[in-house]
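In this notation, each integer encodes one residue's backbone shape. One such record reads:

___
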Amino acid sequence: MLSEDKIVEVIENASKSVVNINTLRVFHDFFYQVVPVEGIGSGFIFDERGYILTNYHVVEGAERIIVTLIDGRVYEARLVGAYKGLDIAVLKIDANNLVAAKLGDSDKLRVGQRVFAIGNPFGLAGGPTVTSGVISALKRTIYSERGIFRDLVQTDAAINPGNSGGPLININGEVVAINTAIIPFAQGIGFAIPINAAKEVAKEIILHGYYARPWLGIAGVSINRRIAEHYNLPVEHGVLVARVTPGSPADRAGIERGDIILEFDGKRISGIEDLHKIISEKRHGYKCEALILRDLRRFRVEVILEREP
């Protein structure tokens, strides 16, 4: 069991990589006059070369991004790239002597594990703010006005809007997720983006300037016993295809509305989450074989995954 002094030391060390992010957006009012609007958020240095991770919604539409380090240094940052589907953005500052955060392994997270949410919304003297809690749940799917976010970490550590983009760390001081305030009305519940997913996105953004996940192009429903009985389906697992996007990889492969996907890339599909997970682990251009059930007839089709539009 870590002592209180040790926990404080861990938080202090982790806080050295946390930054304040100030943004300036320009809007036009009813009379078409330019109205500057400031925004605040948090982020953290994850690479000593000056790369910073934050939420996409923190810097979305910003004309100017100012980053303040914990030691008081101030830099103008440029947006390297972002991925709205995971609410992640990568910024870059030109600075020396930076302290990069230690990145952990979010696949090893367990419910009940103690965590700390760190943010620096105001860049004030005294350093970042810290809230503590535990991992309440894993692999949460959240529907918001910004879209559908899957595989999120749920925590009872308070995540205020200004702390959005800051790190969620474990007791070893490792970043295991990125705090996000995309659900502003959730009472006593915070959500965070697993760091493993963020690392993959950040790597692609640094290399190519963008991230595009593989795309199949269907909307589907998980099949279970209740749904199978209600619709008189011949199987109790798989994904029932409700819609196929014209011109998508699924459409090109001949998948139709009403088909049931039983297997994908050689793996049994229990429901839509299985399908999403398999696809997310692939690259665009990857060839996958799908086992389809259509009108009691089983057959296989080859699907070539493409970049998400």
The mean pLDDT is 88. The chain has three domains: 4-92, 102-202, 214-307.
